[in-house]
Amino acid sequence: MNTKLALLVFLFLVAFTIGCKENEQDVSVQKIESDQPLQPPIDTTTIYGFSRNQFLIDSNKVNLNQGLSHLLPKYGVSQATVFHIASNFNDVYDFRKIKPGNKYFMIQQKDSAKTPYCFIYELNTVEYLLIDFKDSIQVRRFKREIKTKIKTAGGIINSSLWNAFIANQLTPALVMEVAKLYAWTIDFFGVQKGDSFKVLYEAKYVSNKFIGIGEIKAFLFKHRGRDFYAFRYENDSLDEFGYFNEKGESMKKALLSAPLEYTRISSKFSNRRLHPITRKYRPHHGVDYAAPTGTDVVATGDAVVTFAGRSGGAGKMIKLKHSVGKIVTKYLHLSKYGKGIKKGVFVHQGQKIGEVGNTGMSTGPHLDYRVYINGKAVDPLGIDIPTLDPITEDKMELFLKEISPIKNSLDSIALN
Length: 416
Prior knowledge:
Elements: H1 4-12, E1 25-26, E2 31-32, E3 55-61, H2 68-71, H3 79-88, E4 103-109, E5 116-122, E6 127-132, E7 138-143, E8 147-156, H4 161-167, H5 172-181, E9 196-206, E10 209-223, E11 226-235, E12 240-244, E13 264-267, E14 270-274, E15 281-284, E16 287-290, E17 296-298, E18 303-310, E19 316-322, E20 327-337, E21 346-347, E22 352-356, E23 366-373, E24 376-378, H6 396-411
Antiparallel strand pairs: 1-7, 2-7, 3-4, 4-5, 5-6, 6-7, 8-9, 9-10, 10-11, 11-12, 13-16, 14-15, 16-23, 17-22, 18-19, 18-21, 19-20, 20-22, 20-23, 23-24
Helix pairs in contact: 1-5
């Protein structure tokens, strides 16, 4: 997402068998030097459909600094043929991009010369290249069918959200998707023992092998006794899919829940706090996030920089005027400013604007983050930030009707 996700990565830090079958789809232009098309093998129950009873099959992985000119000649393919393939089929694949660690298969005929029949190179878990040597050379790129299954999971948090996910055999990729989904809503440093989650999501498979997650259909996070729902739904006003709570409010808000990755909150919003340096009681209209010097600080919302410089006890400070509502945010005690950050520059939500420091009247590296609405200082941890692009009133009835069965399915998931 952006530097905001560093917070979530910090919290949750951890996460070929491919066949040439009838349901595979040719996904790129192929260059063929023969009128006779490549015939797919009949026996699809063996290696890429090639039976070891009919062919010699050798498999290995590409080593460091190996290319096509290293792989093919050891199977009797001439360098002239290698040059022909690399020169005439780069519209199908740039063979200079062959990667160490990727698997390949050489299929040879069972004759005295062990004549090369075809060469298969796996691009990734889904795509592969097939070089056919019989008759005239052909190179084709295939994409295997991906099957999607709807999966559910639910768990109670005993130590951390990450551990709860792992205990339910959920992947780091799913953790990251949840992290992005709730980036505007929940400060995961505040997750408590006894909080819980339920999720309805897509799992992707190739030949019954799990290859990754798809869409999160719905998610429920119960935090401090409060339910935080998220449903994937197409917002007609934007003509795109987004995530909304059960009230039709977008999960995206005008401000992120926090502007950085931090270790703890060292001081909260107060109208009367004993200052650690002056030893006098005075208002502290911000939240102090303790973090190492150099930690990235991001803009919590789309805004224009109205100030970037030194400001007395605040040290190096940045002031932003936000696009939504009459909101201003300040970022104090920075060690340095982000690249290009100066007065008048527009910044996007999540964009790096500076780094944590210890400048001004500060007793240690931290960020003093402040929010002002209509010119009045408000507690960043206690404000109800408006959402962006909610479901419109005329679409609300349809929205509630369509998410109702999904919500029922989500609610019925057992907690492990």
